[in-house]
């Protein structure tokens, strides 16, 4: 009896853990697609809107969503068969391809088409210019990560050598960067939302520029699947992409307050007003892709940014790692 109670307690704990790490959206008679997302972010609003508005259910997709927290974990989940689809930065597909993968990860639909970070100043600046960064202490993102690569690219575009013209700090863990700035480290910091807007609301810092606007279009966050899965389940991925496209168009057409209400349940302890502020900022600068099709020029811009930072292992042709047929079928 004692052993049985212990087993029941263990089983209940396991159920709780699994319910926290993974969510299922859909019905029992639908086709299942397991998705691993690299993080949970308002940056991904069109995807969550497609879920909340029932677009995946309409397309016969039972979506199992797991947040895997980090690019390495997300790609491990995809490549090991723990997920069918990964939502992650397109640069990861290049890293996998460079390792001569026999079953490479192929990008088939984009979600965001710009960088999602902002430059936050400690002091309120009435007329900011990039020249203001020279000689300052700049709290950047982790070396080798896409945000840092974009950050350095934008600095170079504005005639700033990131390693000579300012005191660049990039040895702080991603999760600790906001608290480091709030505690007094740095004159400027590169932050994701909603932290950038939250700091501005609280008077901790002031948003003075957008790295997404400055760097141009890139396939910043995409849905990818292994080539073998695309070969075997193309129709499922077409249905998936059709649902995603409905979400993209819905977000593009709806007022930010409506979008915020639709996705706020995906973000515990985040006020709907803050969600609306962030959605508005991303919508106004065109960060949310309104089409799932990855464009060739965006792919080339991605590789340029990686190359400038010394992180591009090899040049990869657009056609080698981007599947256009799925998105084109949906858009026809």
TrEMBL record:
Gene3D superfamilies: Periplasmic binding protein-like II. Pfam families: NMT1. Its main location: periplasm. It is found in: Periplasm. Residues 45-257 form the SsuA/THI5-like domain. It comes from the Bacteria. Keywords: Signal. GO terms for cellular component: periplasmic space. Residues 1-22 form the signal peptide. SUPFAM superfamilies: Periplasmic binding protein-like II (SSF53850). Belongs to the bacterial solute-binding protein SsuA/TauA family. PANTHER family: ALIPHATIC SULFONATES-BINDING PROTEIN-RELATED (PTHR30024), TAURINE-BINDING PERIPLASMIC PROTEIN (PTHR30024:SF47). This is ABC transporter substrate-binding protein.
